[in-house]
Amino acid sequence: SPTGRGFSWFDYTATGMAVLFLMFAVTSGGRTLLAEREWGTLPRLLVAPTPAITVLVGKMAGIVLTGMLQLLVLWGATSLVGAYWGDPLGVLLASLCLVLCASGVGALISAWSKSAGQAGALGTAITLVGAALSGTFFPRFNLPLWVQRLSLVLPQAWGIEIFSRLQLGRGLADILPWLGG
């Protein structure tokens, strides 16, 4: 790497687990709308003199804020015990992009699902399969090239790639194309 930092299992695991738990949190967050529909509270929200899009944006904003807070807490906690995530500005920007993308996946899962239970099961399955394919538990560069490419359909792979680059000393300019992904 340009800074002389080598690969660190501890650093890689810190960011990999943060991405994994973020996916669990935000993919299950979208199912709250389905649960509210089942409980009968969603119709009450929609009767209020507020446009439906405002209710949806409010729900999604809460999920995004929760996801961002979760990543910031994990970043802080793992940094306190010695994990290195990279350039702070890059980490913040990467975290925001990752949370937005993962929240979109959660919203898509909820849109496809018929019930909150189905959304939860689908979210868990997509998160775990995505984690295995994206290198959450082991370095992506050890995966076959076709798996590395296939995994780029999910946010986990993008997050892991971006955080790995930041950990190796790459700057904001180096990760901008990856943030676009």
Please describe the topology of this protein:
Layout: H1 9-29, H2 31-39, H3 41-47, H4 52-80, H5 88-112, H6 116-134, H7 145-150, H8 155-167, H9 172-180
Helix pairs in contact: 1-4, 1-5, 1-6, 1-8, 2-6, 4-5, 5-6, 5-8, 6-8, 8-9
Task: Summarize the structure in words.
With 181 residues, the protein is an all-alpha fold. It is 76% helix and 0% strand. It has nine helices and no strands. Helix 1 packs antiparallel against helix 6.
| Element-level helix/strand string | HHHHHHHHH
Report the structural category: mainly alpha
Largest sheet: number of strands, sense, barrel closure? none
End-to-end distance: 22 Å
Number of helices: 9
Overall outline: elongated
* Uncertain ranges: none
Mean pLDDT: 88
- Percent range of helical residues: over 70%
Kindly report the oligomeric state of this protein.
Answer: single chain
- State the total count of DSSP E strands: 0
Percent range for β-strand residues: under 5%
Radius of gyration, in angstroms, nearest whole number: 17 Å
List keywords for this structure.
181 residues, mainly alpha, 9 helices, elongated
Concise synopsis of the structure shown:
This protein is an all-alpha fold. 76% of the residues lie in helices and 0% in strands.
